[in-house]
Design a protein that fits this description.
The complex is a heterodimer of chains A (596) and B (152). Chain A is built from 24 helices and 17 strands. With 596 residues, chain A is of the alpha/beta class. Chain A folds into five domains: 98 residues, Glutaredoxin; 210 residues, NADH-ubiquinone oxidoreductase 51kDa subunit (Rossmann fold), CATH 3.40.50.11540; 84 residues, Ubiquitin-like (UB roll), CATH 3.10.20.600; 88 residues, NADH-ubiquinone oxidoreductase 51kDa subunit, iron-sulphur binding domain (de novo design (two linked rop proteins)); 61 residues, Alpha-Beta Plaits, CATH 3.30.70.20. Helices cover 45% and strands 12% of the residues of chain B. Chain B has a four-stranded mixed beta sheet with strand order 2-1-3-4, covered by helices on one side. In chain B, helix 3 crosses helix 4 and helix 6 runs parallel beside helix 7. The two termini of chain B are 22 Å apart. The chains are: A alpha/beta (596), B alpha+beta (152). At the A-B interface, helix 1, strand 9 and helix 17 of A face helix 2, helix 4, helix 5 and strand 4 of B.
Chain lengths: 596, 152
């Protein structure tokens, strides 16, 4: 046992802000001070608060250091590790707090993310030391497959990938389906913009996913599993490769696991950049080496999936929940959450919110608690406007719905979905029409083209939105948008198309006035859409420094140096904003509407 | 590595097609799949060439035309968009003198947009080959490019 353990977050986000350079400096400094015997440095997965990285967590005292630079390391080693005085200027909040007292952590309940940021994901021994593979051992030696399925069913676990199908029911369907062999697939193709919980779990605790898959395979009667992971996640791919190799070496994957007749092995499959492959039938086609196009269901993968065989397909977070349910029991799990939504959900908080990053909260917590208590609310001086939840398949909910509890049914009722858990907070600087247009551009672009409603319908909706944001829309366009949206929802082939209109429909529902402002007043209230705003120079702030006039590409600014105020000729202005960027006094402002 | 050696690392089973194509593309210093590559893959896996092309043209990460030694992928997802990815992209276009989807004349860089990279906490983000670079500003993006140029 070492005197001090320094956990260094080396998730993708912290690596991108320089975590590996910090580690190098740390190892060097520890060696220089001859502390190698007393202090160990452990690279872990994501700790959650990504925008504060690189992050160090020092045990046994539980001190968090944030935004650490290689140059800070010497001071931490000398002051803290040698003299026992934490370096205050780098502390998350002084003095060294209990993690529980940091508001970001206080409302969270970590089950799936329990090990993320606490263990070295590249060492199976650390996973085993915290109870890893115990659930698999229990299942293989003490439970029948039917008992496993009954336990999962009783726990109330539902799919964490989006639609929320009861997991136990799915397992049962695959178990009873006719046909052999059977397959287990882990859908790690999370592509929803702004959702990164699966990446964090794969990078921070890959064995928990392997273990969940092995338990599922035992329950449904499969011997072969696939993990389909996005090529955009090279670090997750690497850590999975390491984890699979280690598990094989210890006999936790492969033939006759724990000396029982049960054999199971996992193969990694890497995607190649196609959002639609997150849809289960498209994903299966892609694993088969084909174009990732969805096909109509039924038949469902449970009866005819990979290579036409019965296939269980669950998402990363769903599998990561399994071992906890087996070890602690269905009763414990079903106490957490609401009547219909059990357990916790991991959310990726992003957008205009103070604390961005990865959080895990019990189901049933309200949006307000998630955004304001955990997320810390919107930045100073801004006003909360909406929360986009569920990505391009989800919807935008306004401030009046902040007290809606987060569970599958409530979110759906109000026009959003749980989705994979991306939460984007929007403040008064965001235009809702523009946000809807942005998501629709994404789905229209990612449409695979197989069915007409999605391929053509989304393009038509997009054309109408473009017209509105250019200031050329009419009120009948809103009727047409809604009608098109409903038709696409009910006729598209797969989940991508059926849910793609949601961002538009939900903004039409809650931000109707904003659409009308674009149409009737030719004004973008958030001052975002370039055709529906104008710039003006505030006479009392203008110092006539001439910078704006020089920055203007169209010669639209009039004025003489040292002779304020300057003036914008609206008919020449192309609203590029170069003048506002150039002005050191904040005298150039954007306004909604048109002038001149 | 010789192409034959790459092929032989894979079983002759049609479902490994994507992995095989990834490997062939990675082995090409110009980061793309040649017609010969497609023929080799088809022959090796016993598939019609049309089936291989069908798959290649579906996925955005495969290219049928030569690309730069380094591929810059700017995340174009909502979080990065909100955080200013647009101005980063404009800066890169200017610094490299190319548009999205193009390659610099010296064959060093290709500029692309990508779907969400899943590191939204440090948006805006880009990937330089396999390395994630976060908390971008136009200035920081330019520095990254210049550093690679100097390092060869």
């Amino acid at each position: 046992m070492k005197r001090i353990s320094v956990l260094l977050c080396s998730g993708s986000a912290c690596q991108s802000s320089g975590a590996l350079a910090v580690k190098q400096a740390l190892v060097q400094a520890i060696a220089q001070h001859d502390l190698g015997e007393e202090i160990q440095v452990v690279e872990t997965g994501c700790m959650g608060p990504c925008e504060l990285g690189p992050i160090l967590l020092v045990y046994p005292d539980g001190t968090y250091y944030i935004r650490v630079k290689p140059a800070d390391v010497e001071e931490i080693v000398v002051e803290h590790f040698l003299k026992g005085r934490p370096v205050r200027r780098l502390l998350w909040s002084a003095p060294a707090p209990e993690p529980r007292t940091i508001p970001f952590f206080a409302r969270q309940k970590k089950i799936v993310l329990e090990n993320c940021g606490q263990i070295d994901p590249e060492k199976v021994e650390e996973y085993i030391a915290v109870g890893g593979y115990e659930a698999l051992a229990k299942v293989l030696t003490q439970m029948t497959p039917e008992e496993v399925i009954a336990e999962i069913t009783r726990s109330g676990l539902r799919g964490r990938g989006g639609a929320g199908f009861p997991t136990g029911k799915k397992w049962e369907a695959v178990r009873t389906a006719k046909g052999n062999p059977k397959y287990v697939i882990c859908n790690a193709d999370e592509g929803d913009p702004g959702a990164f919980m699966d990446r964090a779990i794969l990078e921070g605790d890959p064995h928990s996913v392997l273990e969940g898959m092995a338990i599922a395979a035992y329950a449904v009667g499969a011997e072969k599993g696939y993990i389909y992971v996005r090529a955009e996640y090279p670090l997750a791919v690497k850590r999975l490769e390491v984890a699979i190799a280690q598990a094989r070496k210890l006999g936790l994957l492969g033939p006759r696991i724990f000396e029982t007749p049960f054999s199971f092995d996992i193969e990694l499959r890497i995607g190649a950049g196609a959002f639609v492959c997150g849809e289960e039938t498209a994903l299966i086609a892609s694993i088969e080496g084909k174009r990732g196009e969805p096909r109509p269901r039924p038949p469902y993968p449970a009866t005819s999936g990979l290579f036409g065989k019965p296939t269980l397909i669950n998402n990363v977070e769903t599998f990561a929940n399994v071992r906890h349910i087996i070890l602690r029991g269905a009763d414990w799990f079903s106490q957490i959450g609401t009547n219909t939504s059990k357990g916790t959900k991991v959310f990726a908080l992003a957008g205009q919110v103070k604390n961005t990053g990865l959080v895990e909260v019990p189901m049933g917590i309200t949006l307000r608690e998630l955004i304001f208590d955990v997320g810390g609310g919107v930045p100073e001086g801004r006003e909360f406007k909406a929360v986009q939840i569920g990505g391009p398949s989800g919807g935008c909910l306004p401030a009046s719905l902040l007290d809606v509890p987060i569970d599958y049914e409530s979110l759906k009722q109000y026009g959003a979905i749980m989705g994979s858990g991306g939460v984007i907070v929007l403040d008064n600087t965001s235009c809702m029409v523009n946000v809807a247009k942005f998501f629709l551009e994404f789905t229209a672009d990612e449409s695979c083209g197989k069915c007409v409603p999605c391929r053509v319908g989304l393009r038509m909706m997009l054309a109408i939105l473009e017209k509105i944001t250019r200031g050329e829309g009419g009120e009948d366009d809103l009727v047409r948008l809604e009608e098109l949206g409903r038709i696409i929802q009910s006729t598209a082939l797969c989940g991508l198309g059926q849910t793609a209109p949601n961002p538009v429909l939900s903004t039409l529902r809650y931000f109707h006035e904003e659409y009308l402002a674009h149409i009737r007043d030719k004004a973008c209230p958030a001052a975002v859409c370039p055709n529906l705003i104008y710039y003006e120079i505030l006479a009392d702030l203008c110092r006539a420094c001439d910078l704006c006039r020089r920055a203007c590409p169209t010669g639209a600014i009039q004025g003489k140096p040292r002779n304020p105020p300057y003036h914008i000729m609206q008919e020449r202005c192309i609203r590029c904003g170069a003048c506002a960027e150039a002005c050191p006094f904040g005298a150039v402002v954007k306004r909604p509407g048109r002038k001149g | 590595m010789e192409k034959k050696a790459i092929l032989e690392k894979f079983p002759r089973s049609p479902d490994v097609l994507l992995a095989l194509l990834h490997a062939l593309q990675r082995a090409n210093p110009q980061n793309y799949l040649t017609h010969e590559d497609l023929e080799l893959a088809a022959q090796y896996l016993g598939l019609p060439l049309s089936r291989v092309r069908d798959a290649v043209t579906f996925y955005t990460m495969f290219s049928l035309k030569p690309r730069g030694k380094h591929i810059i992928r700017v995340c174009a997802s909502p979080n990065c968009h909100l955080a200013g990815a647009w101005s980063v992209l404009e800066e890169l276009k200017g610094e490299l003198g190319i548009d999205v989807g193009e390659t610099t004349p010296d064959g060093l860089f290709t500029l692309e947009c990508t779907s969400c990279l899943g590191v939204c906490g440090v948006a805006p983000v880009m990937m330089v080959d396999e390395e994630v670079v976060g908390n971008l500003t136009p200035l920081r993006a330019r520095e990254v490019i210049r550093r690679i140029r100097e390092g060869g």
